[in-house]
Amino acid sequence: MEKIYAYEVRQDEKNVLQELAEKHGIKVVCSPELLTLEEIPRLDAGSGVTVLGMAQYGEAEMKALADQNIHYLSTRTIGYNHIDLEAAKRHGIHVCNANYAPNGVADYTVMMILLCLRNYKQALWRMQVNDFSLSGLAGREMKDLTIGIIGTGRIGTQVMKNLSGFGCRLICYDQYTNPAAAELAEYVSLEELYRQSDVISLHLSLSPETYHIINHDSIAKMKDEVVLINCARGGLMDIHALIDGIEQEKIGALGLDTVEEEESIVHRDLKTAIFADRDIAYLRQFKNVVYTYHMAFYTDVAVRSMAACGIEGILEMAGGQTCRTQLC
Q1: Where in the sequence numbering do the catalytic residues fall?
Q2: How far apart are CA 45 and CA 48, in angstroms?
Q3: Measuring CA to CA, which of 6, 255, 264, 278 is 20 to 30 A from 247?
Q4: Distance CA 88, CA 58 (A)
């Protein structure tokens, strides 16, 4: 492997990618743009490609890569729902994702919980107009609450480790039991988690089984004024159900680092553009919705790890070595 094309490259990744190129004696060609179907025939045959997650790679893209004799694709993200793995297998494309320590997202999740519980968004708004009143800003203390974690992989478990010092009761749900998580929280059914939790935080990958796991029906089963946190994938929550839940005051607060259909806006400067996504615009304006733009992962450590996985995963697969993050 002599050349790897890197797409959706942020400015902060460039130096790391160049370091990796020099380390491995290869050429890395960087572009801030998406890899489109029209672009694929222009790539050198036999090269590798690393992308992020703002474009979809399905049957047509996989066929085009194979026709160009490109058989190694990596995504510099943990999530890989933007890549059709079955199509990749059909066309002989080897795919891997990225890996990084769970601490950054776990820390961010706890921050989101605290911002929601302490009504910080409203306090911040008031300060901008020199309103220093306290009316309506009384928060809740975590030691008095039950916090439910859906998804007990590395990130979900680290969130529970972080929360264990606050004295809250921790419960969790996952299809599979993680012994490390079981030492921190009580495993319960999903129905029980909905019923008992004051705060619910999602730490799942997005799949057909988890798509819209938070919907009108599941919200109806939750406590009144439940706080919902999503630092995982936007598609886990039905945005229309969230809007209805806020309007009906069933949901007490939302802490969202990701929402569905965010791909056209995330990590882009749109301050002089027409913001046309009405659902996101409407949801984020509520006084009890804290919304950030898919940045929970964004630490110096994670950036280096994601870039390294994006390059070294391709080299490992192409060299017949074990790639820990290989998906197919």
Answers
A1: 233, 262, 294
A2: 9
A3: 264
A4: 8
| Domains recognised in the chain with CATH numbers | 3-100+300-318 (3.40.50.720), 103-291 (3.40.50.720)
b/e per residue 126-142 (b: at least 16 CB within 10 A): beeeeeeeeeeeeebeb
> Following CA atoms 316, 322, 323, 327 in sequence, which dihedral angle do they give, to the nearest 10 degrees?
120
Enter the DSSP assignment of 20. Answer: H
For residue 91, give every residue at least 6 positions away whose Cβ sits within 8 Å of its Cβ, in sequence order, or none.
Answer: 62, 63, 65, 66
Block residue for tokens 């301050």: 271
- 41-99 pLDDT per residue, tens: 999 999 999 999 878 999 999 999 999 999 999 999 988 989 999 999 999 999 999 99
Distance CA 124, CA 38 (A): 46
Q: Can you tell me the distance from the alpha carbon of 230 to that of 204, in angstroms, rounded to the nearest whole number?
A: 9
Secondary structure tally for the chain: helices H, strands E: 12, 12
